[in-house]
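Re: weekly structure request thread

Next one in the queue (429 aa):
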Amino acid sequence: MNNDLPISDRAARESAETTFDRNVVVVAGAGTGKTTLLVNRLVYLLMKEPAPVPITQVVALTFTNKAATEMKVRLRERLAVLTHPQADPTRSSDGGAVSCSDLQARYRLSAGEIAARARAALNDIEKAQIGTLHSFAAHVLRLHPLESGVDPDFKEDDGLRFEEQFTAAWDCWLDQELSRAGQRHHLWRSVLSSATLEAVKALARSLCNELVDLGTLQQQLARPAVTPAISSWIRLMEDRTNQLMNAYDRPKRRKVEHMLAATGSVMRLVAEKGLPGRQDLTSSEREWLDKDLGNAVSEWEKSDFKEAAALIRTAQQLLSVDHAFLNELLTLLLPLVRSIRETFSRQGWLSFDGLLARARTLLFEHPSVRERIKRDYRAVLVDEFQDTDPVQYEIILAVSERQGSRADVWHDMLLEPGKLFIVGDPKQS
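Done, posted below.
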């Protein structure tokens, strides 16, 4: 390998590109060559000894079509160069890209073997899953249309088609609901006394997103008790509230201390009794939490005041939760929302969020499919990992799970050693 490249972290980069016995996380900022590093790792996967990985058994993902196209173009260019080893430049003249001499030095391959593997990869590159997570989700769904419940010829909607359908369905439904023949005028009177029609419409649109689990939402609203996990979280906030009060409270309280004391009461009551515990809050405490906190006070550290403000906002939000009102809204909207979802799918359309929601469901509810997909893909590489949301995260981990193991929740998963490689920049998150 050429050693004249003036990069201080050369050894770390090389390790990230060529370590295959464990999973690798690369944290790096913008402009540091993350994509080059990822493409280099792809090349090493295709060439490594022993057990090179065919390009059709690699998943390489990023989060925009532009970034995915750049990744594929750069890999194609690198493979094209490697098919002609005699013309292959070194890293120093090619921005750090892996060269034929690098591969020969590491794996003792001949120039002919490298060229043959590069040509094979080039021939199959369009079959490889190098693209966006949404495109990979679409591929998985089309492979398993029966299990995922989709038309294998479904079309991916960028939002325009859904907007047309939602608007038409909403207008027709609203005319029926508010007409003289409507059967739920009493519900509408109650809902519209607290919310505008535009707000109700916005909620209906949001509920049409397939990432929203309507069944779980109904269950959560049906029981006002908070889950153990949320109760523990509220207890932690209560503890922090008490710590701040101990540090800043004084006999003649200012607004922030009054509001923080009321916040502590809300946290304690909800943690102990669930949402019904809010009824035990005193009228004075409610009045303090109805106020606006205002600007920081001089005796408080800025960071502590900022944290106190966040705790107070959380308490105010807990007080604003109205289960009865939300249940009335859902009673009104769920038939419409389910109808729109079913019609959209029946017409052969899937939204981008629908792709992810159905792929996640497929992987977690069909163990045989998940095992097959885990077996089919031996390497998973993800660029811009800071952009993942929880559903995307679960899909990536499910595909990277160890063969033969199966967990129903992502944090119990055992990952295949060396299968997952992720690159990200937390500062861009």
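Residues 1-5 have pLDDT under 50 and may be disordered. The chain is about 60% helix and 5% strand.
Next request, please.
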